[in-house]
Amino acid sequence: MNKIRFIVLVLLCAATTTNAQDNKFGLGLKVGANYSNVYDERGQDFFADPKLGFAAGGFLSIPIARHIGVQPEFMFSQKGFEGRGALLGSPYSLTRTSNFIDVPLFLAIKPVRYISILVGPQFSYLMRQKDVFESGSATVSQEQVFKNDDIRKNILCIAGGIDATIKHIVLSARFGWDFQTNNSNGAATTPRYKNTWVQGTVGYLLY
């Protein structure tokens, strides 16, 4: 048992030494787009279609061993959907744009030098939400800033993806979905759902 522990310790020290020589901390910025929708919809005859949104932010690459690291990110991320349904027998359409601050904490695995596979939890903070509601000839646009005591502003998610690094350029693809619903009260007239999205960005390593 002691021999096994000694071997594991030697391997960890060797990996850390190699990492210190080959890997570096990295700081970068990136910009791109989300293609988002919702799932687990619960409402009154509610159906959703995906929509595009803007995404931008920064990331920090922290090596732990030769092929393993962590990568926290800080992103402004637009999600939402285009929905349609019936309310009290009348058809309607709804376009929702939700502005989030997303903070994922990824475990980064590097099977080869220029590729990173990432997975981990994400905390999403809902900053602002805009709805465009159409029913018949009526169109209503409403923008709402959520108060601090509104439980809908804090959402736990799971996310993952892949990075391809070419010198200072980082091409990234992400996917993710919420664990929690947007609305805790479950009102029948308000669609209850969880966000899901795919994201593509182009980044630049500052150092």
Name the structural class. mainly beta
Outline the biggest β-sheet. 8 strands, antiparallel, barrel
| Overall spatial form | elongated
CATH class term: Mainly Beta
Strands, count: 10
Enumerate the strands of the largest sheet in spatial order, edge to edge or round the barrel.
Answer: 1-3-4-5-6-8-9-10
Kindly identify the CATH topology: Porin
**Uncertain stretches of 5 or more adjacent residues:** 10-22, 146-151
- The fraction of residues in strands falls at over 45%
Mean pLDDT: 82
- Computed CA radius of gyration, to the nearest angstrom: 21 Å
Helix share, percent: 10-25%
Number of helix segments? 1
* Name of the CATH architecture: Beta Barrel
Order of secondary-structure elements: HEEEEEEEEEE
Q: What's the N-to-C terminus distance? A: 43 Å
Tally of separate domains: 1
